[in-house]
Automatic annotation (TrEMBL):
The lineage of its organism: Bacteria, Pseudomonadati, Pseudomonadota, Betaproteobacteria, Burkholderiales. Residues 135-144 have a biased composition (Basic and acidic residues). InterPro entries: Cpx_auxiliary_protein (IPR052211), LTXXQ (IPR012899), Metal_resist (IPR025961). Residues 24-54, 130-151 are annotated as: Disordered. This is Periplasmic heavy metal sensor. Transmembrane segments: none annotated.
Length: 151
């Protein structure tokens, strides 16, 4: 009797797992691939500061490309530091011996990397907006999605 119960339980669990794999995006599981609210490589990989619907000249596109391309090495460096610090902090939290000084150092490194990313975003946004004409800046402001506060 116990063997039958174990088999039934195994079949039920298998079918539940197969259902989650067969229908990603349903039942609370996100579909594979990047989320629409993030860039292809995570939350710190984002597009230019202006919204959709702003038409750029070829010269402006070249300038925006150069700005985005120039900041990418620093973005990758800070993102890598943030990721490595968070991973090490998680590992330290699961370790047999917790080293408070090491945890504090890792948390500080993660915070510094996140602050550097925020500053890099602000600088990049300002540089890109400087390329736009006043009319394009107005279009950008009008087309920017509005964030509503959470209840």
């Amino acid at each position: 009797m116990k063997n039958i119960q174990q088999r039934v339980l195994a079949i039920l669990l298998s079918s539940a797992c197969l259902g989650a794999v067969a229908a990603p995006g349903e039942g609370g599981m996100p579909p594979p691939g990047p989320r629409p609210d993030m860039g292809a490589h995570g939350p710190h990989d984002r597009g230019p500061a202006f919204g959709h619907g702003v038409d750029l000249t070829d010269a402006q596109e070249d300038k925006v490309f150069a700005i985005m391309h120039a900041q990418e090495p620093k973005r990758r460096e800070h993102t890598r530091t943030l990721h490595n610090s968070q991973e090490a902090l998680r590992a330290l939290g699961n370790a047999e011996q917790f080293d408070d000084a090491r945890a504090s150092s890792l948390a500080q490194a993660a915070g510094n990397a996140l602050a550097a990313l925020a500053l890099l975003d602000a600088r990049t946004d300002a540089q890109v907006r400087a390329v736009l004409t006043p009319e394009q800046r107005k279009q950008s402001a009008d087309n920017r999605p509005r964030h509503h506060p959470r209840p």
